[in-house]
DNA sequence: CTTTCATACTAAATCGATTTAGTAATTATA
DNA sequence: TATAATTACTAAATCGATTTAGTATGAAAG
């Protein structure tokens, strides 16, 4: 039951290994019809399957890319991964996915391991905390694409949402419909997580631009497990906002859970818009108005950029791509009634 | 910028490659403190990173497994994948995921490619149509685990839900609450997709056991895109069932979409129970009563079984594992009112 | 004082492909 | 007719590790 190698095929077909190799690589130029057939028959007979590891060692290319994500539970991750998968399968590439759990230590380790495994390139949803490691890859011209988040100072391709615009879209929609007291729900803004900053800051700026009040209490920026508490505290204070902007799917889930537990009526008592078009948005009651990221296009772009870098390692000009969000109007934010059913304060 | 190899390290440290290799594999037994330090320094100085491809060629193990799924959009897939990932990361394994799209041709190709890539084992959500290929792997004692679906006649490990029980759980719950006219929504039952058969047949048997009518019209078994139509036709006929059993998350989405579009009230006009505990089940209105698959345990088990096979290729006894579903009682099926709001004949 | 043993290494073979440089035979060109 | 070119191959080096069999040295044992 030992493995069949090229040498076995060569022996059976009565040719050299070199010729078999030529055959496998379809370099038929100077090969007789007769030889070709003999080799084909030998391969068939032995059930020979080439060993790609051996080939990779010589060729220094593995036709494999690595993807490091910081959170698989995120909807964006799943969908982008799907798109990357698809783009890779079209070109015969394979994908190895690793989960950094937003832990820079783990991320660093996975980068090392994947590079040791000789992946041809890396697409990273970065934790943002390994600037030195990222920088080294850029300097070595190792193919690298950031997605979802980017790292200031590291000159690499980055595929991002236009987060400011996404926040503005939400605020403008609320504003136009007469909502004034608007809050935001997000994990804590930290300087190395750019999109979070951009969404929260974009929200603040859009509020200012529309001349709407910026109320500190309406900025629920705390870790996911504490969002319920914060929301409850705000609710108990009696100064509930009229509308809430959830900056991603995970925070939206918290908001919905809170609303459910407190029998708050959407959109009459509280309007909601979130980034990430969750799959149940159109079957929820009310249907959810969301701001969709073009996840598929983003994943595809990331893969394309990586392939570009792999193809011509040298003269590659890193670029930052900002993808426009799409506003999907549904039912969780409507024309605001002047007289509310449950007036607070 | 050429790669640093073990030979470079050996030269700088003034030892042989063998010694460096021993060092890297922590076989310090007969190595002087002095040498160890020199090697460590040389590695540090050169920024040496071992090439795992070369190592794999010699060792005939890649510390990589392949997973072939038939549908990434399925919730089960995502969650099981997550569990497999985690189990692999614990043991230093990497995972390559490929999507067969339920196309046997694709599946066959991916099996070939992954084996050419020398993966140490394969976890497959099988299309069910490549029995010959699966069988060959079993005969060669190539580590293989089926998950979600199994293939009759192929003696390999299989991780499955107890589908009959899942169906029975739903029917019994409905029956005990006074529901009589119960329907099922599923893709078409085909002989090579075992769980689908088991769920539909299990449903039929449970109905019989409870002495409930088996109405052909209440078996909506058609491809996902046509479910809306079938549901509409049934609805138009005026003979709506009182309860519906959705056999997975994808069919549930169709049911919910239909319900939404037709302003049907859950659970008063139509009760619903589905297999797969969708992430929004607890925030939906009403909350959704579901039958959860222990996805995490299943993924973990699949990985463990594969590792077992990898560890001792020979004396491995293939087994079929049936995981028990968990009934999660929420609000989409309640005590049935004797007088219905909208009585249909 | 030889032999054995333990220690601290190394040379060379090996894994299974690809690739380069070359050979032998035949055909075309000067 | 001698030389060049083309065709159809092959031997051997190579990729970068691991591993086996072995060597050299000094200490312990007989």
Quick recap of the structure?
2 copies of one chain form a homodimer. Chain A is an alpha/beta fold.
Structure in words:
The structure is a homodimer of 345-residue chains. With 345 residues, chain A is an alpha/beta fold. Chain A folds into three domains: 6-50, 434 Repressor (Amino-terminal Domain); 62-161 and 295-324, Response regulator (Rossmann fold), CATH 3.40.50; 163-293, Rossmann fold, CATH 3.40.50.2300. The first copy, chain A, is built from twelve helices and twelve strands. Chain A has helices at residues 6-13, 17-24, 33-46, 52-59, 75-90, 104-116, 131-139, 163-176, 194-209, 224-237, 249-261, 295-311, and strands spanning 64-69, 94-99, 121-124, 144-147, 157-161, 182-186, 219-221, 243-246, 271-275, 289-292, 320-323, 326-328. In chain A, the strands form two sheets. Chain A has a six-stranded parallel beta sheet with strand order 2-1-3-4-5-11, with helices on both faces. Chain A is elongated, with a radius of gyration of 27 Å. The model of chain A is unreliable at 339-345 (pLDDT under 50). Chains A and B meet through helix 4, helix 5, strand 2, helix 6 and helix 11 of A and helix 4, helix 5, strand 2, helix 6 and helix 11 of B. The structure holds a DNA duplex (30 and 30 nucleotides). Chains A, B: This is Transcriptional regulator, LacI family.
């Amino acid at each position: 039951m030992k493995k069949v190698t090229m040498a076995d095929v060569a022996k059976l077909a009565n040719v050299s290994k070199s010729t078999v190799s030529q055959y496998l690589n379809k370099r038929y130029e100077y090969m007789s019809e007769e030889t070709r057939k003999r080799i084909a028959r030998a391969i068939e007979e032995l059930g020979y399957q080439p060993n790609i590891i051996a080939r990779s060692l010589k060729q220094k290319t593995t036709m494999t890319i690595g993807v490091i994500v910081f959170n698989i539970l995120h909807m964006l991750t799943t969908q982008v991964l799907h798109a990357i998968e698809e783009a890779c399968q079209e070109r015969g590439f394979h994908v190895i996915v690793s989960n950094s759990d937003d832990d820079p230590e783990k991320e660093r380790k996975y980068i090392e391991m994947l590079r040791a495994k000789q992946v041809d390139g890396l697409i990273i949803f970065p934790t943002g905390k390994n600037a030195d490691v990222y920088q080294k890859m850029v300097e070595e011209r190792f193919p690298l694409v950031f997605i979802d988040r980017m790292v200031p100072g590291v000159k690499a391709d980055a595929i991002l949402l236009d987060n400011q615009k996404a926040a503005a879209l939400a605020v403008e929609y609320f504003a136009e419909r007469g909502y004034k007291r608007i809050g935001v729900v997000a994990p804590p803004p930290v300087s190395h997580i750019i999109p979070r900053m951009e969404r929260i800051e974009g929200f603040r700026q859009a509020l200012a631009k529309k001349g709407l009040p910026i109320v500190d209490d309406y900025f629920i920026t705390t870790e996911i497990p504490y969002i319920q508490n914060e929301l409850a505290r705000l609710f108990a204070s009696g100064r509930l906002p009229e509308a809430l902007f959830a900056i991603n799917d995970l925070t939206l889930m918290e908001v919905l859970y809170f609303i459910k537990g407190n029998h708050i009526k959407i959109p009459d008592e509280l309007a909601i818009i979130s980034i990430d078009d969750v799959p149940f948005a159109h079957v929820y009651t009310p249907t959810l108005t969301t701001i969709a990221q073009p996840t598929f296009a983003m994943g595809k772009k990331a893969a394309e950029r990586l392939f570009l870098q792999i193809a011509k390692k040298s003269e590659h000009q890193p670029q930052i791509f900002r993808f426009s969000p799409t506003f999907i109007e549904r039912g969780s934010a409507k024309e605001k009634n002047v007289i509310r059913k449950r007036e607070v304060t």
